């Protein structure tokens, strides 16, 4: 990932945009990690070659992380991903005898989704170039746009709906899509992770839309349109924006801050803590509460109606605490460089959760990261890598003790 990012930064460094290598590396890491934070000002007039390169980096990063999540991370037995090795091993071995077949199936599906959303965006009024670029960064839940104002540039309800659905598509498990197409496995919406994702998203969207409508005196359908798009964008880690939701009020800012850590489903292009880990944490909390009420009772945690092993629960807890630890350290380091509290904390969050925009006037939906000091950009690049590789994978690479296991 580091070598690929270093090489991918060269087109930015040698372009007509007059970017330093620090900025070029930041932009490349943001692309490959599908974060979506940018240091480029003047996207509307930027060369199309650079805009396409940004979209391509995110598109390749998206499919890369899907394959990694399905074929590599479960074998590393870190972050709770071994759960999917156990859950899918029998079915996957029969449906896809070799890892190459899984990768090929995902690649075909990924290209098909990209083509479909490109056609939809083109039919909704985007130019063919913009439609292709945004389709690539939508299915990758990356968020790089060809416009400074992001999707807000188009001010189109139809485009908002299409991209919202596209982001949701990228946030669901691709292995379930493949199993459905082959007539094997359970329907998409019978998977508990998918149901949790939809329930959480709809609950937050409707709740915030009602609050926005009542508090700020806007029409409910208007509030629902902008809340739906921007919550889905932040929750999936895409990072598109259609408005500066930082101006909605402190409550909305707080909601968006916490939503950026949720993420989508395992085996998708999304980022963050991910839904299945929230499910495991919920089961752990439920078991502990049950033990408090009935100390001598025997309680078992379940995921998708299957018992959770102690190995999985411990792994998820370890991931969660390491994730929080990395976020706190990164936020403190950015604050030590002179960034104000909101900028430092939201920049750390958006990097470690691979979201894109932060909060506040500097790095919020209406700003970018160009004015941050070079040291902060390098720290955020490291944060993006740690977040994208899900913390534990970086430890696997750095500590030989993991290799022997």
* Mean pLDDT figure: 89
Overall geometric form: globular
What radius of gyration results from the CA coordinates?
21 Å
Q: Summarize the biggest pleated sheet.
A: 2 strands, antiparallel
The amount of beta strand, in percent, is under 5%
Terminal Cα span = 23 Å
Q: How are the strands of the biggest sheet laid out side by side?
A: 1-2
The number of helices is 19
Number of domains: 1
Structural class: mainly alpha
* Helix share bin: 55-70%
Could you spell the SSE succession in H and E letters? HHHHHHHHHHHHHEEHHHHHH
Strand segment tally: 2
Summarize the structure.
This protein has 405 residues and is mostly helical. The protein has helices at residues 2-8, 10-13, 21-32, 48-76, 82-95, 99-123, 128-139, 157-170, 174-181, 192-216, 220-235, 250-259, 275-293, 310-336, 341-352, 360-363, 374-388, 392-398, 400-404, and strands at 302-303, 306-307.
Question: What topology emerges from the helices and strands here?
Answer:
Elements: H1 2-8, H2 10-13, H3 21-32, H4 48-76, H5 82-95, H6 99-123, H7 128-139, H8 157-170, H9 174-181, H10 192-216, H11 220-235, H12 250-259, H13 275-293, E1 302-303, E2 306-307, H14 310-336, H15 341-352, H16 360-363, H17 374-388, H18 392-398, H19 400-404
Antiparallel strand pairs: 1-2
